[in-house]
Recover the amino acids of this structure.
């Protein structure tokens, strides 16, 4: 991935600090705003047609989420990706989602939603649309939680993985996305067979892929990461 940030997509509406925050939050997660990049209150306020105050509030919220760093007398900068936060979220996801997989395998519910998300990933992969690919990936895991009768579990997990998502938007531009789809198919096949052990193993293998990707991305872009 090039070190130059992509142009920021303008939000459809940004009338409040929360809307500005949500827009910037999405830009950080997708890599449209890169670690170390300076944020200008004046420029962003002009782009969204607001005063600087709601933009300043949005910057503060980004900092509270660990996605920005406010440096007194110097400005606000996009924070680096916390490897500790990535590894923590990955560990929690593996523990929780492997249990969800065992539950789904025992229930043998309708899994058409998981099939649909694999198909959506295939389309996104063919179009080289990494954000759409990752959205379908998330929907696959959300559908598994839904099939387990615990949709709120995915909502809880989703709140933990902001730093993980930043890594994914970097790594999915570099690593083999077809391997990710193959891992999803292995999970789905085990679930459809009602094989709880195989489903758990497939989920663990899938989520451990990040243990290989993280050090490689950190070595390739050391300025983007912090312990």
């Amino acid at each position: 991935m090039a070190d130059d940030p992509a142009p920021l997509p303008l939000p459809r509406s940004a009338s409040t600090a929360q809307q500005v925050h949500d827009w910037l939050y999405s830009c950080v997660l997708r890599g449209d705003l890169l670690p170390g990049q300076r944020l200008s209150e004046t420029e962003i306020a002009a782009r969204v047609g607001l005063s600087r105050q709601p933009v300043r509030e949005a910057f503060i919220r980004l900092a509270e989420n660990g996605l920005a760093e406010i440096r007194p007398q110097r400005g606000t900068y996009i924070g680096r990706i916390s490897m500790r936060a990535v590894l923590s979220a990955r560990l929690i996801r593996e523990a929780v989602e492997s249990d969800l997989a065992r539950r789904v395998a025992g229930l043998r519910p309708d899994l058409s939603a998981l099939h649909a998300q694999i198909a959506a990933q295939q389309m996104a992969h063919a179009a080289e649309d990494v954000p759409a690919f990752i959205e379908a990936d998330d929907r696959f895991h959300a559908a598994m939680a839904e099939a387990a009768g615990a949709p709120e579990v995915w909502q809880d997990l989703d709140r933990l993985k902001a730093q993980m998502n930043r890594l994914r938007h970097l790594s999915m531009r570099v690593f083999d996305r077809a391997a990710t789809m193959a891992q999803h198919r292995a999970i789905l096949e085990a679930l459809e067979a009602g094989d709880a052990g195989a489903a758990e193993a497939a989920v663990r293998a899938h989520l451990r892929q990040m243990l290989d990707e993280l050090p490689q991305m950190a070595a390739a872009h050391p300025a983007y990461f912090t312990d």
Observations:
- Residues 82-226 form a domain with the Four Helix Bundle (Hemerythrin (Met), subunit A) fold (CATH 1.20.120.530).
- The two ends are 21 Å apart (CA to CA).
- The CA atoms of residues 6 and 32 lie 5 Å apart.
